[in-house]
Amino acid sequence: MSEDASRSGQPTSLMASEIAEAPAVAEALYVDGNIVARAAELSRRSFPFVVICGRGSSGHAGVYLRYLIETRLGLCVSASAPSVVTSYDRVPQISGALFIVISQSGRSPDLVAATRAARAGGALTLAIVNDEASPVALAADLVLPICAGPEHAVAATKTVVNSFIAGAALVAHWATDHALQGGLAKLPTRLADALTLDWSAWCDDLNCAPAAFVTGRGHGLGSVREIALKLSETLRLPAFGYSAAEFRHGPRASVSTMTPVLALRQADAVSQGIDDLVRDFRRANLIVHTCGGPGGTLPWLPDGHPACDPITMLLPAYCAIEREARRRGLDPDSPSGLTKVTETL
């Protein structure tokens, strides 16, 4: 991209272009009829528990989906360990369960193997994928496409946003949660507004940091872990995403005045715990940037639905990380040592 393009405010990387597409692809997903159809199929069945399978950013979408399923449907959710199938050669005995695999590319061999094994073990398998013709999709009983379109930057952004939204919309219709449905309907507009938020103050404090932390809780934990991953892969900065509760069980000791903390706070039952942790950090003169709540230091929107706001918070973080990568002379589209499709067993 030319210097003139950069000055004009146009996207200067594929990652920036794809972040900017997030509101439009969210709109395309929300009006897609597959979500209602898949939710109707699940509503006709009874499941003893749910297993969610995903790696990296897809795994973070799975963490978010876990909270929604457990809070809206009361079903116990477990995380799949694909190596049990691929390395230890054991087929899980999950007859009658729902197995949900989340993958942007749908091409990682371990996810394909885990999905096939879950189906052989008696589970109903559902693939949340961007490519409906991918091996993961073909291995599953049901497919929920996320409708994000082609994504070329190695760091996934718009596909992550739509993976979060797809899971939330599935649960909203499955549980007949009208409030959540209403919050999701507003997401395309809120995502567009979030693109204008400048979180460069946070990145300024990352400049000389040897490591960084991201924290939150509940519905925000998936976003916490996702932002930490983007810091690591795009800025080559060791970053750690912890629950605000988990911080007090050990990781707090590793936070110093050289390791900035980003706190995500949605307005729900966990907000007080996040506020208490931020207050403790500030009393210790640690660097904390907060999104949300009366003590927020970063630009934010008026609070929306508390289960949807963690999705919206991804966009200003993505934008800030992409800009900081370019400022450091890094290529946000091709992080060192990474490829678009990660093949693990």
TrEMBL record:
InterPro entries: GlmS/AgaS_SIS (IPR035466), GlmS/FrlB_SIS (IPR035490), SIS_dom (IPR001347), SIS_dom_sf (IPR046348). The gene is glmS. It comes from the Bacteria. Residues 39-186, 202-330 form the SIS domain. Keywords: Aminotransferase, Repeat, Transferase. The keyword DNA repair does not apply. The keyword Magnesium does not apply. Transmembrane segments: none annotated. GO terms for molecular function: transaminase activity. It holds the Pfam family SIS. This is Glutamine--fructose-6-phosphate aminotransferase [isomerizing]. PROSITE patterns: SIS (PS51464).
